[in-house]
Amino acid sequence: MWTRRALNWLLRLAFRLLTRLDVQGLENVPLHGRQILMFNHVNFLDAPLAAAFWPREVEVLTKVENLRSWLLGPFMRLYGAFPVNRGEVDRRALTRATWVLESERVLLISPEGTRSRGRGLGKAKDGMALLAVRTKSPIVPVAIWGQEQVIPSLLRLKRPELHMRVGKPFRFDYEASGRIDRDAIRQMTTEAMYILAAMLPEKYRGFYNNLAEATTRYIRYETEQDELRQHTAA
Fold first, then answer.
1. Measured between alpha carbons, how far is 62 from 81 in angstroms, rounded to an integer?
2. Hey, what domains does the chain have and what are their CATH numbers?
């Protein structure tokens, strides 16, 4: 949609002019097919930064309160974001998110479900992992830091440092036979969050600070999947 492209252009310009922006890893982004863009959520700048610099058009899932906000609401509606009601099973949002992925598009989602406000990663909810398993979608982790300093620095007429790192895409190696195991989904969520934590400076890792507890039982990187398919075909 043209409004989204125009807003992305304005956002990129603003981030470049107002911050000392460092973006790395965009070469890891698959340019075709469905994908979930997973990011850490510190404040309102995270989602616009990730969406604006993504090589593909991004569909944004946001809490319903943002669309009702007098400040963020008009921008979110222009961008075409769609709402999710937190604290309940929002079937309408789940249906829309599933449609986005099955249409081979990009869905931006924060597993934490809310902003950490500079306290580091919060304990994630299981919605993202459940959606990834149901739609067989790869996940691209995005780590962002320095965003909590942007507004205070600008108020002091300084350009703050802002960093965004894009990791390698991965999938959950899990085939559901009937009902999906909730314990397995919880483990997948935890493993994905440790991947994100490892990409962040230590002070941003929060609940997932102890990387020694990280496991990769369900994690399969896309390169591993490609190698396995080639081996099977041979």
1. 7
2. 2-233 (3.40.1130)
